[in-house]
Amino acid sequence: MSAVKYRLDGNVAVLEIDNPPVNATSISVREGLAEALKEAGADPAVDALVLTGSNGVFLAGADIKEISSGLSNKFPMLRDLQSQMEALPKPIVAAIQGVALGGGFEIALTCHWRVAAKSAQVGLPEVKLGLLPGAGGTQRFTRLAGPEAALDAITSGAQIPATRALELGLIDALADDVVAEAIVFARQAAADQRPLRLASNVTEKITGADPAVFAAFRKKLESKARGQLAPWRIIDCIEAACTRPKDEAFQLERDWYNECRNSAQRKALVHGFFAEREARKIPDLPTDTQPLPVRRAAIIGAGTMGGGIAMNFANAGIPVQLLELTQEALDRGLGLIKRNYAASVTRGSLTQAAMDRALSLVQGVTEYEALAAADIVIEAVFEDMKVKKDVFTRLDAVCAPQAILATNTSSLDIDAIAEITSRPQNVIGTHFFSPANVMKLLENVRSRHSSARTIATAMSLGKQLGKVAVLAGNCDGFIGNRMLQFYSGEAEFLLEEGATPEQIDTVMEGFGFAMGPLAVRDLAGNDVGYLIRKSRRIPDDERFSPILQRVFEAGRLGQKSGRGFYRYEGRTRIPDPEIMTLIEGVSRDLGITRREIPDDEILNRLLHPLVNEGAKIVAEGIAIRASDVDVVYVNGYGFPAYKGGPMFWAQEIGFEKVVETMRKLAPTHGQRWRPAPLLERLASGGQGWSDLKKTA
Ligand code: 3H9
Predict the structure, then answer these.
(1) For ligand 1, is residue 253 a contact (CB within 6 Å)?
(2) 486 C-alpha vs ligand 1 centroid, how far in Å?
(3) For 419-432, how does the pLDDT look when each residue is reduced to its tens digit (9 = 90+)?
(4) Relative to the CA of 79, which ligand 1 atom is closest?
(5) Cis omega before residue 20 (within 30°)?
(6) Which of 39, 324, 419, 534 could form a disulfide with 330 if both were Cys (CB 3.0 to 4.6 A apart)?
(7) For 208-259, how does the pLDDT look when each residue is reduced to its tens digit (9 = 90+)?
């Protein structure tokens, strides 16, 4: 069976790529396409060609596995096919349905014309994989749509709806029946002997491009793309399209593509791509498990978190009830949601019509009895077991028997919450991250009672809400917060020993974290941090630094009080001598002689505890696999995606080295630095995380 089906519709050859699930341009597709192009070119009965895809998509791009294995370089490469297409003296029309992405869209851009279904999406998402479009994508896109549109679209990797692509000049027509209309288009172009239009020869939008555009865009991207390679190379490519001779610009794109493909960042981001998809797979669920369809939802608690979660449902088109027991609290919560949407409208990221549609889906209620029709209820009240149990008792009494009852706790025992109800099998943790309408991670936490259907529903809810869902087991802090306590705890030990908040945060931000650990504490609130710290269970032979408690007691609550580990002017953090006095006081009280701490020690001291606790979490089965831990850290805790996540990072630097560093630091930094047995095993066996599956 060829991956490319060939048929004739009168004088038009229709080439249909069929490589499930998403028609990636694997070697079989490239070989099939080369053969089909040759056949259509040689057949005198063929006057024009239509290129399309099966499986509801055009082409999703290069086969990402082949990029890692090197098979994407095997002849014919995408570029060879493009040369073949450009040399063909017959019109080629792309019929795009579903998505045309990456190398797939680059093939479409090489066709002479493009017809797209109204619901189709096109785009060049390579940047998300640490790549740039290496088959002429940066060049042809820029020539058709102009540098400004290209800069926005290719550095973000965003999908572009067909209607917008038409406005930008990337496609030529919208269609209802895309293949039939593309055939008509192609036949007419041949009949009219219309001059064949190659995007690589279009120049109107690149002539006289203003060089200031590139300087301004580089400035705009400065903090967002700090430390990354691909976004900067994409700008270079687009600039080259406007300023260099055509052949030279295409060659530069090729060189820079190879530079990105060979980079550690590409490897890390490809790991992240597959890790997110792997996380959806729950090995112990029976394959025929059907999730409960979520058609109506309800949220208990209209605070910042509850409101944010409700917005997720409304954005996904799911009617959602928001419960507060007093009208006043409810009005406050609904007002907050309205203000959040209005801010998006002002920023231009949401239309007024979309805001009105979303708001019409949110219904405020003050009685539990109103929740009887909800398929899922998510509790987002104060983090206190007694309060939560009370909510669940009330929910149990009023909700439909099959309804899923979920708790948004960030650390409490899900088993205990489930056991207060008469349907513990329907109870699960759905841990959202703040701000819940923005953050991508959904950490689902199974209790020992959660049924297969309950777990499947929570996981498919993640996809419905556009989140990345990961399943965790029930323990103190689950995956993310359990690891976090050792990371932020270590930051305070470093302060005791001689580091300053700005030194620690600068090192971690230099590594790529969105924010350093102390800036994060100030953002979340040091009162909140201290409260959580107090509830934590740690082994008897460990301690926490008293710094957080003293910062809290000094009323330095963080950004909200204008002072924390920094002083704040608005959101700008400013080093504060007063906090240093407090920290130095702690060092003195503990009898610690402060010293200069090198930056690499700071990095090691903060990353190793994450890896170590992560390894324990994997060994205990709290995370199904190490890559799930990476997905949690990248999507919920600001770990740089282009470094892959803590577990990937450890494997890349080598487990032997990780264990050696820990053993070296253990005598001075205590018991907590003893390497997890699993890390020792991996180090001594020369194994990787993926070997665990094989030996389990
Ligand atoms: C590129 O093109 C470079 C060129 O410029 C090169 C020039 C020289 N390859 O996401 P889903 C698998 S770079 C291999 O769950 P959805 C995926 O792993 C590429 N496999 O579905 C999963 O497998 P499994 C640029 C791929 O409906 C299954 O398909 N293109 C690829 O939610 C279903 O995926 C991109 O970056 C692939 N390209 O979303 C597009 N794509 O079932 C990447 C998917 O075993 N893909 N798979 O877990 C996507 O964005 C989404 O998959 C898509 C569908 C929107 C297409």
Answers:
(1) no
(2) 35
(3) 999 999 999 999 99
(4) 8
(5) no
(6) 324
(7) 889 999 999 999 999 889 999 999 999 999 999 999 999 999 999 999 999 9
What is d(CA 354, CA 489) in angstroms, rounded to the nearest whole number? 43
Known catalytic residue: 106?
A: yes
Region for residue 82 given its phi and psi (left: phi exceeds 0; alpha: psi -120 to 50; beta: otherwise): alpha
CA angle 466, 408, 611 (to 5 degrees): 80
Q: What is the three-class DSSP state of 380?
A: coil
Query: 608 near 661, Cβ under 8 Å?
Result: yes
Separation of CA 646 and ligand 1 centre (Å): 24
Q: What is the 3-state secondary structure (H, E, C) of 395-434?
A: HHHHCCCCCEEEECCCCCCHHHHHHCCCCHHHEEEEEECC
4-261: in CATH 3.40.50.150: no
Percent of the chain topping pLDDT 70: 99
Q: Is the CB of 60 under 6 A from ligand 1?
A: yes
Active-site residue 490, yes or no?
no
Global confidence as pTM:
0.95
Is the Cβ atom of 130 under 6 angstroms away from ligand 1? no
Domain with CATH 1.10.1040.50 in the chain: 480-597, 600-695
Judge residue 615's burial from the number of C-beta atoms within 10 Å of its C-beta, 0-12 exposed, 13-18 middle, 19 or more buried.
Answer: buried
How many angstroms does the Cα of residue 22 sit away from the middle of ligand 1?
7
Residue 200 CA, ligand 1 centroid: distance in Å: 26
Concatenating the DSSP letter of every residue in 108-148 gives: HHHSSEEEEETT-EEE-GGGGGT---TTTHHHHHHHHH-HH
The pLDDT value given to residue 400: 96
CA distance 513 to 118: 39
CATH of domain 480-597: 1.10.1040.50
